[in-house]
Every structure is written in C-alpha cells, then in structure tokens.
C-alpha cells in the first residue's frame, strides 16, 4: 500500500504496517506455503498397492453390473468378477487425500456421507474423531440447494463432501452427489465397478462393500485430516517464532 503522490508530490512512501496488514500477510503465508510442495502432508507414505490389495480394494462387482464409465478403471475380469486396477486406485486415492488435507489445513468443513447401514456407525465415529461432520441417514432433497430457505442465511455449506459409497440404493446414485455438483461443492467418492464417477470431483475406484476396505478408507481419511490440522498448528507456531527472531 502506498500514499497518494498526487497531493504531496515526489516518490510515494510506503504506508505504515497495520495490525490488519500483519494478519493478512500471516493468512497469505499459511495458505501459499503448502501449495509450494507437491506432497506437503506426506500422504503418499500412508498407503501402498500392497495395503490396498490386503484390504480387498481391488474386488469389484459382477461383470454384468459394470458401469460403462468405469471401463478405464478395470484391470480385468476373473470368474465373472471385475478386478479394479490398483495402480489407478493408488494414484486417485493419493490425489483425493492430498486435496482433503488441504481443505482440513484451511479449517474447511468436511462432511462424510454414507448410506450403507453396515458402515454408518463407523463413518460417524470417523467424523467425530476428526472433528468433522457425517450424514448417514436419509438425504432429504434440498438440504444443499435450498439451504437458505430451510435454514437461516448464515448457514455455511460444506467445503468438501466425502462419499464413502456413492449409491443410495443398489440401482440409484446418492442424491447428495447431484446437489453438491449444482452447488459447486468439491466431492471425493469411493466408486465401485457399478457406480457412475462422472459427477465426483475426485473419484477413487475401489471396493465399497468390504468391511476391510471401508476400515482402510476410514483410517486413511482420519490420519490425513489429523495430520493436516496438526500441521496447521505447527505452521502457526513456526510463524510466531520467526517473527520473534526478526524482532530481536
């Protein structure tokens, strides 16, 4: 910021730094610093292809149930059962975890969604341990698109929605995926071989029915979000120490 030179003439002098400017510089530094590193939160060390294989992530549905948009994620078919390509799963999962970490680092609201009753308690426990939110019940239409009507104008929508299973029933996609796309809310979703990945921002091809696979997903998201929030506190402390050294 500079003083106007039209009135006084000469070279404009910089304005005195205000507390608001210091807070703004601190916020900019916190946001820009993680973006300089491709894996700032080290999410790649959390999993491997062997980990995915042991958790049965590669097991899809019957070949006859395959969705046409999942063709590129299928490694092959054995005994009439689709086998998901774990190389692609690893890549997509790392991207999704990295994006989730950046949202958590910026104090964003993350909503976990799962309609499978078998995993509803597990997903709710995950959200509680991470300090985030979960929705595992019937999704009423308009929860996102009509939020200003159903609630007050000050209600804040989620910054990220994580679908641990993208189907509402065996043949129907979860309504929240469509609503999130309408509201430009980024989504992360586990897409099995019978799912439609087109509306998911970060699709993760993988098994969404196995308890071992679901346990792995929950552990990964929990570790990622916890690590990102801890990194935020660490960066705030580091910034404070740097300012003290500069002042001394």
From TrEMBL:
Keyword Repeat included in the entry's annotation: no
GO biological process terms held by the UniProt record: translation
Transmembrane segments: none
Keywords: Mitochondrion, Ribonucleoprotein, Ribosomal protein
Molecular function GO labels: structural constituent of ribosome
Signal sequence extent: none
CDD domains, sorted: RPS2
Pfam families xref list: Ribosomal_S2
Entry similarity comment: Belongs to the universal ribosomal protein uS2 family.
Name the UniProt record assigns to this protein: Small ribosomal subunit protein uS2m
Species of the source: Engystomops pustulosus (Tungara frog)
């Amino acid at each position: 910021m500079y003083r106007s030179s039209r009135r006084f003439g000469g070279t404009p002098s910089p304005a005195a730094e205000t507390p608001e400017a210091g807070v703004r510089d601190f916020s900019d530094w916190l946001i820009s610093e993680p973006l300089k590193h491709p894996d700032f939160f080290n999410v790649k060390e959390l999993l491997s292809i062997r980990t995915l294989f042991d958790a049965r992530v590669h097991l899809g549905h019957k070949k006859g149930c395959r969705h046409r948009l999942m063709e590129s994620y299928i490694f092959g078919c054995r005994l009439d059962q689709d086998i998901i390509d774990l190389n692609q799963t690893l890549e997509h999962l790392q991207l999704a975890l990295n994006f989730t970490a950046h949202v958590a680092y910026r104090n964003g609201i993350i909503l976990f969604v799962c309609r499978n009753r078998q995993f509803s308690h597990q997903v709710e426990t995950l959200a509680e341990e991470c300090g985030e939110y979960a929705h595992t019940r019937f999704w009423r239409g308009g929860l996102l698109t009509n939020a200003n009507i159903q609630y007050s104008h000050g209600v804040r929508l989620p910054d990220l929605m994580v679908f641990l299973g993208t189907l509402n029933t065996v043949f129907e996609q979860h309504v929240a995926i469509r609503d999130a796309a309408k509201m430009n809310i980024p989504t992360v979703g586990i897409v099995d071989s019978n799912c439609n990945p087109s509306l998911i921002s970060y699709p993760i091809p993988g098994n969404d029915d196995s308890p071992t696979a679901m346990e792995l997903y929950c552990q990964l998201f929990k570790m990622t979000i916890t690590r990102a929030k801890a990194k935020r506190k660490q960066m705030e402390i580091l910034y404070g120490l740097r300012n003290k050294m500069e002042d001394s």
